[in-house]
Write a structure and sequence with these properties.
The chain is an alpha/beta fold and 192 residues long. It has a single domain, classed as P-loop containing nucleotide triphosphate hydrolases (Rossmann fold), CATH 3.40.50. It has a 5-stranded parallel sheet, with helices on both faces. Bound molecules: adenosine monophosphate (AMP). The site of adenosine monophosphate (AMP) has 17 residues, from α2 and α3. One of its GO terms (molecular function) is AMP kinase activity.
Length: 192
């Protein structure tokens, strides 16, 4: 069975950690648009230079740039049996673009899995991560902006996937192992 999945949820809900674990269990690559942008920023590429203008202030990188990057990544052969997207789509236009990218390859999305978490809890987690990882976009002001962007642009995606019958929601509060088990169970149940 293929596993073409997107992982949704607010910043700080544990998407990155869970994406890596799920990808390993499902045998598909975890593709994080945030990680690809960060690698390009670090490597000083043209893409990185463009992305940094936006990501440093917690804004979304423009769709033209992000969509082209995702289209290229999903053309890589390691996605033949599926993928787990983390951090994409991030707005309703990207939902449509993902559907188009897949349709162009004769494919469809299998499932959108939303990790739910209380905004207060995720804000606290992000501030803690800021201390540990020193990410440029983990300062208090930028975190607040990223949570606003999430509420305004990203949260509405869930309704779009729900209307398509593709959404499952999983409670993201709890031990990491516990949440992984919940996610695997939700994915397994939905796939049946
Ligand atoms: P993340 O690691 O997923 O929190 O992403 C870090 C930053 O990368 C975001 O705050 C955005 O600036 C940018 N980014 C990541 N994914 C996307 C996306 N799908 N669309 C636009 N910008 C994105």
């Amino acid at each position: 069975m293929s596993a073409r999945l997107v992982l949704l949820g607010p910043p700080g809900a544990g998407k990155g950690t869970q994406a890596a674990r799920l990808a390993e269990r499902l045998g598909v690559p975890a593709i994080s648009t945030g990680d690809i942008f960060r690698a390009n920023i670090k490597g000083g590429t043209e893409l990185g230079r463009k992305a940094q203008e936006y990501s440093s202030r917690g804004a979304l990188v423009p769709d033209e740039i992000t969509n082209a990057m995702v289209r290229d990544r999903l053309a890589e052969p390691d996605t033949a049996e599926g993928f787990l997207l983390d951090g994409y789509p991030r707005n309703v236009a990207q939902v449509d673009e993902l559907a188009t990218i897949l349709a162009d390859a004769g494919l469809t999305l299998d499932l959108a899995v939303e990790i739910t978490a209380d905004p207060e809890v995720v804000a606290a987690r992000l501030l803690k991560r800021a201390e540990i990882e020193g990410r440029e976009d983990d300062t208090a002001d930028v975190i607040r902006h990223r949570l606003d962007v999430y509420a305004e642009q990203t949260a509405p995606i869930s309704d779009v996937y729900a209307a398509q019958g593709l959404l499952v929601r999983v409670d993201g509060i709890g031990e990491v192992d516990e949440v992984t088990a919940r996610l695997l169970s939700a994915i397994g149940t939905a796939a049946r």
